[in-house]
Design a protein that fits this description.
It is a single chain. The chain is mostly helical. The longest helix is centred in the last third of the chain and has 28 residues. The chain starts with a helix and ends with a helix. The chain has a single domain, classed as Nucleotidyltransferases  domain 2 (Four Helix Bundle (Hemerythrin (Met), subunit A)), CATH 1.20.120. About 80% of the residues lie in helices and about 0% in strands. The protein contains five helices and no strands.
Length: about 130
């Protein structure tokens, strides 16, 4: 089923914000594995919204990351620090979800909480600016 592009962009950004709230709830009860998962997906949904805005897409997580880096990070439209954050979260989400005995320090995840809020807000701002320019 196909959805109107702007509707899909709005939906993906809303999902990014929703899972960001879930990450904050999980951090509040020190569920770090689930928090990492939700932080990654907040970025993933926001990046998907940005790709859709630019009529870009991939059906795989690796493809979404590659397009994002090529089109937005490498071109300087998105700060390289956010590109690294997104890559890091993918790696740690994989480890957290699938590796036995995975652990991570609380202060790293709490820093990511702040960083991901900024990342999602930046993408939302870019999408809004592009809507105004259209």
């Amino acid at each position: 089923m196909s959805y109107p592009r702007e509707e899909l962009i709005t939906y993906r950004m809303n999902r990014a914000k929703e899972v960001m709230e879930e990450a904050e709830l999980m951090a509040g009860v020190k569920h770090w594995h689930t928090c990492i998962n939700r932080l990654y997906y907040a970025c993933f949904y926001a990046v998907n919204a940005l790709l859709i805005k630019h009529e870009l897409a991939s059906s795989k997580h690796s493809g979404v990351r590659a397009i994002f880096v090529r089109e937005f990070v490498a071109t300087g439209k998105i700060n390289k620090d956010y590109g690294r954050l997104y890559q890091q979260l993918f790696k740690y989400r994989q480890q957290s979800d699938y590796e036995d005995f995975f652990s991570i320090e609380e202060d790293i995840v709490t820093q990511w909480l702040s960083d991901v809020k900024g990342f999602v807000a930046l993408i939302e701002q870019l999408i809004s600016q592009q809507r105004e320019e259209s």
